[in-house]
Target: Protein SYM1
Amino acid sequence: MPTLFHRYNELLKRRPWITNSLGCGIFFTIGDYAAQSLFPKEPDLPLDHKRMIRAGLYGSCFFAPISVLWHGKTLPKLKNPFINLFRRKKMEQVPAMRKKLHFYDSVFRMGIDQLIFPGLVWIPLYNTVMVILAGRDDPFQVIQDKLYNNWWRVLSANWTVWPGFQLFNLYFIPVHLRIVALNIWATGWNTFLSFVHNTKGHGHGSGHRLEEIVDIDDDEQEFYVFYD
Model:
């Protein structure tokens, strides 16, 4: 009798687009819920359900289709170009060498994935979509400010979290299950993304109002400067 996992496994193989869209939407919603619960903007602030819906829409309608196309369809076809065709054919004929070849290809795929997609696709896409869905005034200026403040910090954090897992994922996990594995691993990461995106001033202080005394030449002309 097929278990729930076997049925889900079959759905991932037969209908990867819709199955992964539903899964990504759920996991991004969970991530935003965790961010609001663990890092509320104010004590006792009720959950922002619209914000959770936006996170779910991003996961289902934007992240999932691109992820299926990249992680499920394109990345598995990439081969390490530093191994020539003659050597590749020779390695494919020996089981022990075949595993080594798979490892070399996995390292190359991980490198391409981490060098290109986080900084050039995922971080800009997340900020752009979430700002537009939120209906912010002057959205393009808001997007520019968020990327200016957060892009490098998020990217450098990404490189501490993802390369090792991606290598494991590409080497050990079957192709049709890789996005599921990514979603499970990304639960904490989605929480971090939501926190960074929704914390005012992140990257230049905590986002809370700061008060500083600016001392100029005349002591009697001290004044307060407020940063929002």
